[in-house]
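Dig into what follows:

_____
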Amino acid sequence: LPGLAPQSDLDSGIFSSAANILGFAVAGAEALLISATALTAASPIKLPDGTAAAPALTFTTQATTGLAYGGSALDVAVVGVKNARFGAGSFTCSLGNAAATGYAVTYQHSRGTVASPTATVTADELGVLNFEGYSGAAGYVVGAAIKAISEGTIATTRVPAHLSFWTGTDAAPTVNTERMRIDSTGDVGISATAPATFITQT
C-alpha cells in the first residue's frame, strides 16, 4: 500500500520505491517512478494534442518549439510555426516567408567525428538517398539511389562533387549500378562514369 493515499482509495497514492526514488501507485500497481535523473512510466503517457502555436511537448526555454498532434500526423513546430509534419507514409516540410528561399534539407559529411570533424577526401559519399522495396525473406532491398560523391581537390571553401543516379538490376541478388552522372564540371554521362563532353553516352 502507498505511504500517502486518500482514505477512500488506499491502494492509490505515493510511496518510496527505493532510495531517492518516488513512486506513484494506482489500484495497487506501480504507475510512475521519479528519480533525480529519470521519469519511468508503466503505461503510455498521454499529452494534450497541442497546436503549432502551443505544442503539447515543449522546452523550458522555448515554449513554442516542440511537438503537437495535427490530426493523424505529428507536427514539429519551431517558434510557434509548423515546420514539418510526419504522416502515415509521408513527410512534409513547410516554410513560409517573404524571401525567395525554400526549405533546405542538408546532408553533411566529414572524416573524424561530428564533434571534431576533419576534411572530407575525394570519393567520399556526401549524402545518399536510397529507395527500398521489401523483397520478402531478405528484407528491404535498395532498388534505386541518388548519391553525391566528392571528387577532385578538396580544400578550404572547396568541395567539388558529382551527382550520380543508380538503379537495381533485375537479378538475384539485385546489383545497384550507376546509370547517370553529372560531374563537377557540369558534364553528363549516361551509362558513363567519366563524361568527357557535355553529354557522353555509351
Notes: The chain has a mean pLDDT of 93.
